[in-house]
Write a structure and sequence with these properties.
By secondary structure, this protein is an alpha+beta fold. The chain has three domains: 202 residues, 2-Layer Sandwich (Beta-Lactamase); 55 residues, no CATH class; 150 residues, Reverse transcriptase/Diguanylate cyclase domain (Alpha-Beta Plaits), CATH 3.30.70. Helix content is 52%, strand content 21%. Strand 13 and strand 14 form a beta hairpin. Helix 1 crosses helix 4 and helix 1 runs antiparallel to helix 5. 28% of the residues are buried. The N terminus and C terminus are likely disordered.
Length: 449
């Protein structure tokens, strides 16, 4: 009974793994979408308000020009007024002073000035009083660049709900904010006494003066906060739904992936021995040869063939033949490194690919395999143990530079081992006439595999 719950837990492990995987993928997508929507909304809100501020600054600059034009009209009207002209002609200084004080003007005549203008910074306009031949007096009207002007401009300027205007002269605030505060607009933002504002400026036709439309960044962010809460609430609900659906989707996904993996293994695995098959050999050998050529290393190719297999198969039946093949395959699989590839090539023939192995090392490895196979005992149907042997042929890359040449050279060495009496290892050596020689064991160092 204890084995069944364990089996169920093992069977459920892939489903749980795919459940977590599906949920994490869904969560990543949902979070990415939510973050993207939030950023786009914030960017859109920022662009909208920046555009509004830029438009407001331009409208405010246009309103400022209207103020200047109106100031010129006032100066002209005052210069052409009969009371002022009469006082100028008669030299009535008291009347001139009264008019100057009432109109916040300055009247210049005969080398002296009557009245005073508003302090700087200011805008002013001047008109002349003449008798047709000469200038009798000049009249100047001025408007201080301060809160009064800013109020007039604000009334004529469309701005966002939390927007405002600031007059700046020579890089410092003169109205609409802390006077004298340095103003430097960077990336559409300005800092005024620790508060960050979105800002857009428009120059005024007054030396070094500009009109800056501002809005607190916090006010812009607050407008997108409601949308942000909605987006992340929707994302959270979607995550809950994804968690609920993940397990249902994981079961068929695990089944499909398991089937694909099983079919892939079957396509590359010999059914009888569990070794790689010829298809897997073709793919792996090509990759290993390319890697060896790229890295300047060696690769050895070994062919093994069970000796006198047909009498065993014919004399004891195919079942014993299969048992022999499986026993030999087990020896080969247990005699190689993790990087090596043992392959059932067909029938009683096997191939071993040894990446990085020189010919001498591969011969030593093949000799160890041969010895292990010779020690095998496989029981026949009568309960008697039979022994088998195998012959090996070895070839090396880069002596043979492609799969076909390697196979041909190793096969020729195998044929030589068979002719020499079987149950032995032969290595392929190239001569000028193309013949193959087995160098034997003389003087070969012991390899480390």
């Amino acid at each position: 009974m204890s084995g069944r719950p364990r089996a169920r837990r093992l069977a459920a492990t892939p489903v749980a793994r795919y459940t977590v995987l599906i949920f994490l993928l869904a969560a990543a997508m949902i979070v990415a979408v939510a973050v993207t929507l939030d950023r786009n909304a914030h960017r859109s809100s920022w662009q909208e308000h920046t555009t509004a501020l830029a438009g407001g600054a331009r409208v405010g600059a246009s309103a400022f020009e209207s103020l200047r034009a109106n100031l010129r009209v006032q100066a002209t009207q005052l210069a052409t007024s009969l009371p002022l002209q009469r006082a100028v002609v008669t030299g009535n200084e008291a009347e001139l002073r009264r008019i100057a004080e009432a109109r916040h003007a300055r009247i210049d005549l005969r080398g002296r000035s009557i009245g005073a203008l508003a302090g700087t910074p200011r805008i002013s306009s001047t008109a002349k009083i003449t008798d047709g031949l000469r200038v009798l007096a000049t009249v100047t009207i001025a408007l201080p660049l301060g809160d009064e002007v800013l109020t007039l401009l604000r009334q004529a300027t469309p701005l966002p709900a939390h927007g405002g205007l600031v007059l700046v002269r020579d890089g410092r605030v003169i109205a609409g904010g802390p006077e004298g505060t340095p103003v430097q607009i960077r990336a559409g933002r300005v800092d005024l006494r620790g508060t960050e504002f979105a800002a857009q400026a428009a120059p005024l036709r007054a030396a070094g003066t500009s009109l800056v439309a501002v809005e607190p960044v916090s006010a812009i962010d607050a407008l997108s906060e409601r949308y942000r809460r909605f987006v992340f609430l929707a994302a959270a609900l979607t995550l809950v739904l994804a968690a609920a659906l993940a397990n249902r989707l994981a079961r068929p996904l695990a089944q499909v992936i398991g089937d694909v993996a099983r079919l892939t293994r079957q396509a590359h695995t010999d059914a009888l021995t569990g070794l790689a098959n010829r298809r897997a050999l073709t793919l792996r050998l090509e990759d290993e040869l390319q890697r060896a050529a790229r890295n300047g290393t060696s690769l050895s190719f070994v062919i093994a063939d069970i000796d006198d297999f047909k009498p065993i198969n014919d004399g004891f039946g195919h079942q014993l033949g299969d048992d022999v093949i499986k026993a030999v395959a087990s020896v080969l699989a247990g005699s190689v490194r993790e990087t090596d590839l043992p392959v059932r090539f067909g029938g009683e023939e096997f191939v071993i690919v040894l990446p990085g192995a020189r010919l001498v090392h591969a011969r030593r490895a093949a000799e160890a395999m041969r010895t292990a196979i010779a020690e095998l005992e496989v029981p026949n149907p009568r309960g008697e143990a039979i022994r088998v042997t195998a012959s090996f042929g070895v070839a090396e890359f880069p002596t043979y530079a492609n799969p076909e040449a390697l196979l041909a050279a190793a096969d020729a060495a195998l044929y030589q081992a068979k002719r020499a009496g079987k149950n032995r290892v032969a290595t392929s050596t190239v001569h000028d006439d193309g013949s193959v020689e087995d160098p034997g064991d003389a003087g070969l160092p012991v390899p480390v595999l």
